[in-house]
Design brief:
The structure is a single chain. The chain is mainly alpha-helical. The chain has one domain. About 55% of the residues lie in helices and about 10% in strands. It is built from three helices and two strands, in the order E-E-H-H-H. Strands 1-2 form a two-stranded antiparallel sheet. The longest helix has 25 residues.
Length: about 70
């Protein structure tokens, strides 16, 4: 795993010069957009969205079984 140098100051509890994994320091714009969309809003909003998606999938499965 590639490592980078930590730039945290002593107030945040980090040590200068300490190595950190590249996954922490190398977040790409696409990843930021993905996680922003995934975790946007309140937990209640996400629960409603997840329930609607589950209902949509259940309906699609129900319709595909009836068409067979």
């Amino acid at each position: 795993m590639a490592m980078g140098i930590c730039r945290q100051g002593s107030l945040s509890g980090g040590e200068l010069g300490r190595e950190i994994p590249s996954a922490v320091k190398g977040t790409k714009d696409e990843e930021v957009e993905f996680f922003t969309a995934k975790f946007a809003g309140s937990q209640a909003d996400r629960a409603i969205k997840a329930e609607a998606e589950a209902n949509k999938i259940a309906e699609q499965m129900k319709n595909s079984k009836g068409a067979s």
